[in-house]
Amino acid sequence: MMSAAWLFVLARVGGGESYSGGGSSGGGGGDGAGELLYLAFRFLFWLTLEYPLIGIPVDIVVIVLIVRYVKRKKKLEIFTVSSAPAAAPSAAPLARLDELRRFDPNFSEITFSDFCYSLYARAHDARGRGDLDRYSPYLSAAARNSLRARNQGLSEVRGIVIGSFRVAGVRGLDDANVTATVAYESNYTEVAAGSQTSWYVKEQWVLERKRDILSPPPEKSKADHCPRCGAALQTRTDGACEYCGVKIESGAFQWYVRAITLMTTETRGPLLTSNVPEQGTDRPTIFQPRFGDHRAAFEAAHGGFDWSAFEVRVKEIALELQKAWTARDWERVRPLESESLFQTHRYWIDAYTRQKLRNVVDDYQIHRLQPVKITTDAFYESITVRLWASGRDHTIDESGRVVAGSKSDVRQWSEYWTLIRTRSAASGTQTMSCPNCGAPVPVGATGICPYCSGKLTAGQFDWLLSRIEQDDAYGVR
Which of 427, 390, 429, 392 is nearest to 408 (CA)? Predict the structure, then answer.
């Protein structure tokens, strides 16, 4: 089962179906089981009173089975606890990973996520081209061989879209080497012998690095540079860098993938027409520990920061996303989202288009925003807000027939939205340099350079939407 952070509720932006097509049923199940147990015990009681010669032996058998089950369950629990990882169970994996900043002041959760997205897409693209050895500075021989094993006459892998990415585990923060296990859910199309097959897959990648190394800046963290010298990624036949001559076989300079495991692979696409109830909307808001101190420090560092203007920015992004979602025209919002979130939402737009469906949220309204978390790293600042909204959320087919949701019922929900901006934007810098041609580009102007038409690096603008999380998932990562 996928991470709860990616279980979508109905199909709106940030909501919708499970990426895998399963959807969440929203609780339930316990009442049916309880009723069956009640009826079973009632029957045994009646049998014992009316037919003791039969009932008493049956009671003894049932009691013996229950005792054996309880003993076995306790043994299983003891085994589970004794074999658990050494990492602190109370710390969510992503929070544990963020502790790297104690040893590496350049570590950024945002940069790490971008790196993982970039490497995943590049690796699968290289798998299709038979060029995996080029990425040997990032992928171990075992990891490359794991990817090669899927090829079977493959000539191309295209349409690589990551629908879900999460940090599933972290260990080694007290040692010289840190290991992070990340889980992907993605969709891609393989081309072999002239035919195409689209796959939905779940993968687990194990990455490692030296704990005390300094992370490269965002522009050098896209898996397209040598981890040691920073030159454009070009490797010799022996796997050494074309420029510095170093053959990398560990995480001595940057994250290094030690193992890749294909968990599941299916040809089915996402289901877009099931109705899923909201969960967690009435739960108390989850605040960052010592949020008041973080907010005070942020406001002290940004004397002119205007919370009202920030709220307007969030609402503008939300409304524009809803318009693009309904129109199934996602390119128009590229300047408003981080690249990873943009790719995720693009997957859903493509899925609706293929199935000739359209999700609509009529009378969309944002009722309240509440800041809950503020973080700053060497390159980015982020603010997470809880957003309460409502609308008539429904999905229609080409004829306009409602296939999910309701045109008349008003649905209430809340979500946690995280927005990011670069430190340069925070300092008032109004221009950025295009990473492709070096031309100056106004901050927040567009996602495409007007000079060379190259794509600008997401996150170099002012506030962008980076993550949307549901109430029942937020705080458990």
Answer: 392
Tokens of 141: 């021989």
Is the whole-model pTM more than 0.70?
no
Report the SS3 class of residue 29: coil
Residue written as token pair 């229950």: 66
Distance, CA of 112 to CA of 165 (rounded, Å)? 11
For residues 198 and 229, the answer to whether their CB atoms sit within 8 Å is no
Could you say which of 3.10.450, 1.10.1790, 3.30.70, 2.60.120 is the CATH number of the domain covering 93-266? Answer: 3.10.450
**Cα–Cα distance, 118 to 113 (Å, whole number):** 9
CA angle 353/355/357 to nearest 5° reads: 70
Contacts of 10 (CB under 8 A, 6+ apart): 16, 17, 275, 276, 359, 393, 395, 404, 405, 411
The CA-atom distances, in angstroms, between 117 and each of 175, 205, 343, 461 are: 26, 12, 10, 19
User: What is the distance, to the nearest Å, from the Cα of residue 471 to the centroid of all Cα atoms in its chain?
Assistant: 15
- Report the C-alpha gap between 279 and 283 in whole angstroms: 9
Q: Which amino acid is at 262?
A: L
Distance between CA atoms of residues 330 and 321, nearest Å: 8
Write out the residue limits of the CATH 3.10.450.240 domain(s) in the chain: 291-470
| Residue 214, helix vs strand vs coil | coil
Q: For domain 291-470, say whether CATH 1.10.20.10 is its number.
A: no
Nearest CA-CA partner of 14 in 359, 350, 371, 357 = 359
pLDDT tens by residue, the chain, 477 residues: 333 333 333 356 755 444 443 332 223 333 344 455 656 777 777 777 777 777 788 778 777 777 666 555 443 333 333 333 333 333 478 778 989 999 999 999 889 988 998 899 999 999 999 999 999 999 999 999 999 999 888 999 988 888 778 899 999 999 999 999 999 988 888 999 889 898 989 999 999 999 999 999 888 888 888 988 888 888 888 888 988 999 999 999 999 999 999 999 988 656 666 566 666 677 899 998 899 999 999 999 998 899 999 999 999 999 999 998 888 888 888 888 887 788 778 878 887 888 888 888 899 999 999 999 999 999 999 999 999 999 998 889 999 999 888 899 998 889 999 999 988 776 654 455 555 565 665 544 345 566 665 555 544 567 899 888 877 667 644
CB-CB neighbours of 365 under 10 Å: 13
